[in-house]
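COURSE: Structural Biology Practicum
ASSIGNMENT: Worksheet 4, Part C
STUDENT ID: 0417
INSTRUCTIONS: Below are two proteins. For each, the amino acid sequence is given first, followed by its structure token string. Answer the questions at the end about the second protein only.

PROTEIN I
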Amino acid sequence: MKAKLFLAVLLVVAFCVAYACDSNDNDKQLSGWSTPEKLGAPVNSDDVDSCVSISKDGLSLFFSSNRDDVGQFRRDLYVSERASTATSWGDPEPLTDLNNIGDW
């Protein structure tokens, strides 16, 4: 099972690196960090929400959380989506296929 998890993570990383190296984006300059702000409900919760990553198009927000906790230190992956960058984030949904890989 650990080998399958490692392979899945490796494939995701490889895809992200390939996608990030899109030749059309090579001339873009990054700006400085902006002031962080809470997203509020339904994304922020009273639980531990962390390890946030946003998709390149700004429409999917991935994070780890212990909401719906089923055991000590249990963290699951969630995604919250929105229709456009001008709209609010939707209710986070657990990434069930990734969260149910068994004990490791």
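PROTEIN II
(use this one for the questions)
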Amino acid sequence: MTHPKEPSELQLHSFKPHSKLSSEPDFVSSQGDTRTVNNVMRHEYRVLSEVEKAYMKSIKDFGLEFHDLLAMIGDSREIALAKTRIEEAVMWAVKHITK
């Protein structure tokens, strides 16, 4: 049986986790043009039109409403899976708008 290799000292020292700059806000509107300031992975966004922003807000609002409805009917593995799929559907729909 082989064991995973230990990371070298060089690898450990070259990894620097993202740290929040003091000038970065804690919360940024997902519809705002400044939505890149707290995103580590995506460094560039295109500016969305007002129509695209409205679609994105509606998708998120509908997703939240459905998510909240499921939360009201109880807890189970099935409900947890359904909530996860709602979150995924919202993510993909928003990604379509913002690409």
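ANSWER KEY EXCERPT:
Q1: Helices lie at 9-14, 50-72, 77-98.
Q2: The chain has a mean pLDDT of 78.
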